[in-house]
Amino acid sequence: MNTQILQQLDHERSTRLAQLNAMEADKPNSNEDLVTAQTTAIRLVLKEIDAAVARVSDGTYGVCSGCNAHIPRGRLEILPYVRYCVRCQQQSM
Known about the structure:
Helix 1 (2-25) runs antiparallel to helix 2 (32-58). The model has no long low-confidence stretch (mean pLDDT 92). This protein has 4 helices and no strands. By secondary structure, it is mainly α. The protein has a single domain (2-92), classed as DksA, coiled-coil domain (Four Helix Bundle (Hemerythrin (Met), subunit A)). The protein has helices spanning 2-25, 32-58, 73-78, 86-92. The protein starts with a helix and ends with a helix.
């Protein structure tokens, strides 16, 4: 199970890095403010992915950081790096 999760997280990381590289390569032809905002958002997701890998290692992956409930599998399939259940995520906004 952990191997599958780590593979999914690695795929997410590779996808985000490819997006980042494409944006950096196209920077001269793009709106600088938009590219900066997008690259900042991608870098934040990369940090969340790294944090999710750490949670896999310490055994807390899939446990909400807010309420300690299990995060539903469907949510983790969509956002494998998510650290909160929907309820706690909404409360933090």
